[in-house]
Amino acid sequence: MAGTAVASTRLPVQKRQSGRKRLVRTVGRTMLSAAATLLGLVTLTFFIGRLLPLDPVIAILGDNVSQDAYNTMYRKLGLDQPLIVQYGLYLKNAFSFDFGDALTSGRPVLEDIGRVFPATIELATVAVIIGTGLGIPMGVLSAMYRNSLIDHVVRMIGLIGYSTPTFWLGLMGLTVFYASLGWVAGPGRIDFVHEFSIEPGTGFLLIDTTLQGQWDAFWNVISHIVLPASILSFGALAYISRMTRSFMIEQLGQEYVITARVKGMSWARTVWVHAFRNVAVQVVTVVALSYAFLLEGAVLTETVFAWPGFGRYLTNALLAGDMNAVVGCTLLIGAIFVTINLLSDVLYRIFDPRTR
Questions:
Q1: Which residues contact 91 (CB under 8 A, 6 or more apart)?
Q2: pTM summary value
Q3: Fold assignment, 109-355
Q4: Mind listing the pLDDT tens digit for each residue in 155-190?
Q5: Cα torsion through 63, 69, 71, 75, rounded to 10
Q6: Which residues contact 325 (CB under 8 A, 6 or more apart)?
Q7: What DSSP state is assigned to residue 179?
């Protein structure tokens, strides 16, 4: 009896230790995968930069540079070193967040990114709120009333969201809602009359105007952001509604749903309280990935609406052949995707016991 008692107490301890080991191994594999992805991205950007037909010395000094000045800058950039040495210096600078100076502004690339990125985060955040707030209910209703008129309308909206070019939607939105109806403000982030009345703060104008109590400027920012955020959210809305519909259809075919209906539970309560709870973690993952795509995919939206954000900065850098800025932006986008994927995986394992 005593031996049995000792063995029974050892089992939970061994089980906990085994669980910790599995958790450590899982976290280690995930971190290793993220590090390998970032290393691969850095390596890819290095060799792409070397293969492009752009002379970084000419891009910095111009076409009319003397041969002596050209040679001096060539050596300063380390281009006279063997390729493996250049790659090592590139890795060192990249992982120390030193991307050099941007040719378009003359300031450090990291400083430029820190200046323009809050505008993109603000735009993408409003867009994902719109896309999530509409996409999830649309997907659930589409699954609840499968093959009905509601389902067909939701699927049609999703098809339009996937297939319609963002720049065309942006131009049509400006033509209809700004130029014709005057319901929203035009391109830009804020009107010139309000721009210099806001004290520098977080970089997020919606937050800064609220903290400073400048409500006229706040509503002006809302008027500017609502149209580009709605255009940007259209693709996310289509993706979120489609995935939510797919998840819910699978759950609504489970036996526990039939059991709940037999016990007299209403259809709406069965769907929203029981079925949706079982897909909530998957939906969170979809929303997180949509947010990452919005941060990256804001390039066309920011160009059409003259939004002074990350996407427009990257576009100008590409047109100017500013490889320092392009590389810095590319690595930031990659880091965002890796981080969001990592967080999504962690959340999935925390909230869904079946994945542990």
A1: 42, 46
A2: 0.79
A3: MetI-like fold (1.10.3720)
A4: 898 888 878 888 888 889 889 998 888 888 888 888
A5: -110
A6: 99, 102, 103, 104, 109, 112, 313, 314, 317
A7: I
